Structures are given as C-alpha cells and as structure tokens.
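User: Teach me something about this protein's shape.
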Amino acid sequence: MSVPKFHFPVKDLSNDQVKLEPFIASKHGPAFFSASAPYPEIYAHIPRGPYDTESSFLSDLIEPTHSDPDWLVFAVISLSDPPGALAGVIAYLNTSPVHLVTELGMVITFPAFRGSGVTANAVGLLLQHALDAPELGGLGLRRVVWQANSVNGASRRLAEKMGFRFEAVLRWDRVFRDGKRKGKVGNGRALPRGAGEGDLGRDTVVYAICWDEWEEGGREKVREVMERK
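Assistant: First, the predicted structure itself:
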C-alpha cells in the first residue's frame, strides 16, 4: 500500500511518549487486528466495526480512508512500557485545505494503554501539528473539530482536558445499523416507527479548538497535559 493520499505532506510525529506513524496495512494491520480482536467494545461508539477478520478490517476501514485525501490514519506507537508496542490508532478526518479545517477522530486505544498518557500525547501531537504555524513546522489550520457520542463520557472528558470547547449537540445524528448485535451504544431513546429492529440512534456532541484559542493559551495547556506523567 502506497503513502496515504492526504491533502498535506505526510510524516511521522513523535515525542518522548509516543510515535505516530501513518497507518500502513502491511506494517500495522496484523498487529492492530490481533490486539483489537479480543475487545470489540472499542468500536461501541463509532459507526464502523467490530471486525471478525483482518481482511474485513482493512477493506472496510483502512483501505477507503487510505485513498481519501480528507483522512490520515496514524498508528499510535508507545515509546514506554513496553517501548515500540502498538497502542492504538488516531486520525485526521474531514480535512479541508480550502477552509483550513480538520477533525480528530477514530481514537482507539487498547485497554492495556488506557491511563498511561498515550492517548493524550497522541491527541496533543496532532493538535500541535494541525494548529502550529508553518514556520513552526505545523499545517497552520484554523479549526480542529472533535465529535463524540453523547454517552461516551471518556471521549468528552478527554476533549475538554485537551482544551476543546463545547459547541453543540446534534440529536439523532447517526444511525447504528444493526447496532444492538454489534455492541454499539445508542442514545437510549425509542426509534421512530419503521426503524430496523436492531438499529440504534446516536446523538453527537461537537467540540472544537480554533487557531486564536490555540495562540491564546491553548498550546500551553496541551503541552502541560502532555508533560504529566
């Protein structure tokens, strides 16, 4: 598989805690599927997954995003405890070089690495790269979005900790087709007449951080979170 077709130059990002490498199916696919297969609940809040086979994971999730210039999926590599281990994935998505906007999403961290600081550092690296000016090595974007299932408290707390500001709740934003069987978590409300028997509805909470907030203390706040051990 070739280099992802992202709108901007693609490169690794790293600090002393994590390394983010553009996700390459042949390099990261087997390790990701092996580590994620025992934990189907990691897909509970997102439209895709879970997956029974590595090939279905690659064909449904990785291959379409690899060829979509709005997306860039990273493998999250832990540099401590144990160093070099695949800890999960994270992505830029819905990226617009015209409007200078991107979104952080598909944040999946394996249970063994939760609470280790890996996720906060991965999010921080992507924020720094997106919002820092080009002369500082960043992309110079003006807005970074974060969307969370309304009942996903962990995702909402992480967004707030990293400096994202609440903007809106999009009610009935997503349909989880056959969501009950797939282990999805819906909004808990009754669906309209005619809905699929196993379907669920999702409300989405929208957060964002913009370039001016980044320059007015957002950068320092993120750095402080990343430096916590």
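Now, about its shape. Strands lie at 13-14, 18-22, 72-78, 85-96, 101-109, 143-149, 165-176, 200-210. The mean pLDDT is 95. If you'd like, I can walk through any region in more detail.
User: That's plenty for now, thanks!
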